[in-house]
Design a protein that fits this description.
α3 runs parallel beside α4. α2 links the parallel β1 and β2. By secondary structure, this protein is an alpha/beta fold.
């Protein structure tokens, strides 16, 4: 064989395969926020596996300490697909220009109607009574970025002339709805805000319901629009998940009681969501 032919053959056998080798693809990051007694990593793992399979793309899961931390991580480009609560969704839509709203679990109507916030109190039977002595009362919320145990009841209190940070003797955060209710029931707080279904399941003696919100919509999933993250395609995959991988919704239901018995994703009601304002602290 001619020497030149030998050189060309060696180049084809050795150099070209090296050049053709693909660079490892950056995984899509699917993430959510932590909540007491809920294994949220397990709750989003089937979703991550489903996206990896449909996209033929590596995916990893991450957990952040709060809905606000999750939104911040998405803002910084650390998260591609997020499962937020309503507060986290509203933060992201307000603060991240390149965020895309994905579908949301379709909660059955009766269960969706039960996802509300309540204000409850010891030694007070009306909001007027609370207003009269608010300066002596301890308020317990679930968390700064909770929906039913945070910004929804806080917004209502402010509409009634009760700014929690100024009107009450103190404001504390219980970390969970059950803990907020327990704090009032045991006398560690005088007023509490929490999810209505948690209150309704317990209804402890000596705790009076003062107010109940309209139904609260769950937060849709979010996608960080980027050149290597096909948000619109991911949205279409979610709408097919009930047929392609029922485990996705089953795991989400286990992680989020507010999803009730949802079995399918539906497009988010952007009109309804746009009517919910998130105040800046």
């Amino acid at each position: 064989m001619h020497l030149r032919s030998v050189v060309v053959l060696l180049f084809a056998l050795v150099v070209l395969p090296v050049c053709a080798k693909e660079e490892p693809r950056k995984p899509w990051v699917v993430a959510t926020y932590a909540y007491p007694e809920r294994d949220r990593i397990a709750a989003i793992q089937p979703l991550a596996d489903y996206l990896a399979k449909r996209g033929r793309h590596p995916v990893q899961v991450k957990l952040f300490p709060s809905p606000t931390a999750l939104a911040q991580a998405m803002r910084e480009g650390q998260v591609d697909v997020a499962v937020p609560n309503l507060h986290g969704y509203l933060q992201a839509r307000r603060d991240i220009p390149q965020v895309t709203t994905l579908p949301v679990p379709q909660v059955p109507a009766l269960q969706a109607d039960r996802y509300r916030a309540v204000l409850v109190a010891r030694d007070a039977e009306s909001l007027a009574e609370v207003k009269a002595k608010a300066g002596q009362l301890r308020l317990m919320l679930v968390g700064r970025d909770s929906a039913s145990g945070g910004f929804v009841p806080v917004r209502y209190l402010r509409s009634q002339g009760l700014d929690p940070a100024k009107a009450f003797a103190s404001v504390a955060y219980a970390g969970s709805h059950a803990a907020a209710l327990q704090a009032v029931a045991e006398g560690h707080a005088d007023v509490a805000a929490l999810a209505a279904d948690v209150h309704d399941a317990a209804r402890p003696d000596g705790v009076n319901e003062l107010w109940r919100s309209d139904p609260i919509p769950p937060g849709p999933l979010l996608c960080r629009a980027a050149t290597d993250v096909p948000c619109q395609t991911i949205a279409a995959w979610l709408l097919e998940a009930h047929e392609e991988s029922p485990a996705v919704m089953a795991a989400l239901r286990a992680g989020w009681p507010e999803f009730g018995d949802a079995t399918v994703f539906i497009p988010a009601d952007l009109g309804r969501l746009s009517g919910i304002a998130l105040e800046r602290d």
